[in-house]
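Folding problem:
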Amino acid sequence: MPSPAVPHIGALPSGERDAITDVAGVTVGHCTLDEAEVQTGVTVVHPHAGDPFLQRVPAGAAVLNGFGKSVGLVQVEELGVLETPIALTNTFSVPAVAEAQIRDCIAMNPECGRGLPSVNPLVFECNDGFLNDMQRMAVRGHHYRQACAAASGEVAQGSVGAGRGMSSFALKGGIGTASRRVPRPGAGRHTVGALVLANYGLLPHLVIAGRAVGPRLEAQLAGAAPAAEPEKGSIIMLIATDAPLDARQLRRLALRAGAGLARTGSVFGHGSGDIALAFSTAYTLPLRSEQPMPAVALLHDALLDGLFRAAADSVEQAILHALWRAESITGRHGHRRPALSELLRDWPSDTFAHPLDPHP
């Protein structure tokens, strides 16, 4: 019996790839480390093809629960711009990836930190220590560069890159992505895309497309899953859009990622690091003061609701994609996380075929 297909969340249509890269100019790359006790990696999101240190994009962040060890978030909150690609990795690899970002910026801009301002590296993390031996600190600068070099519009999902060792709901988690198209005033559409690093959740709480499936899955595992513990996971949620928004509006957009996260059964637990960041590709802001600032007609606040819904739906969809696309992994000390697809093999193929939209 074929496994049920992943349900489509909400009424808005997805983009061509149903990925964050449906936002023009955005690319994603992975470097995956799969070596017995080492199950980890790096994922990189590029906002555009140029040098983000010289041509910055507006951004805003929302910290739903701050149990995390990111680098660069404080300056993003203060200045509202990105200066490097966004990097995702495991907790103990944040310093190595941040150093690689700094070194790459210096290589492209030799006056960085001298005649030019210092760069603000941006690295987010989740703790993959159940499957990955983080103490080996296996991720190095060249892995970050491999992920950068691999960046493209096609996004691998599941147990890849930074998602290799991640767990969600006592199942295999990882990387997921999705997008939604939103009608814009006049004609055409805006695109909102999301990419998540999913490493959170308690199995009894799992909700899929409005259906509380966690208890059934827990019974199906029949004790194979570890006993329920307090929430100690994390999730990083990245949102891109081509809508012309400023940093204040982007922070508001990032906050709506929490709606999509909550729909899957999360309450942003005490020990969970739940962080969202949104950026716009509609314009760039120059580093050099002698270059003119762009004259941008920003989207009116009263027209943001469609983007808010798209952000919530695409984050929820990206989380489901992370679960659906993941493969079962055995890692450190023989610890194993089963893939959701394994558990759904005996479920009717139309289980999620026609879900009622629980979010009208």
Summary: The first strand starts at residue 27 and ends at 35.
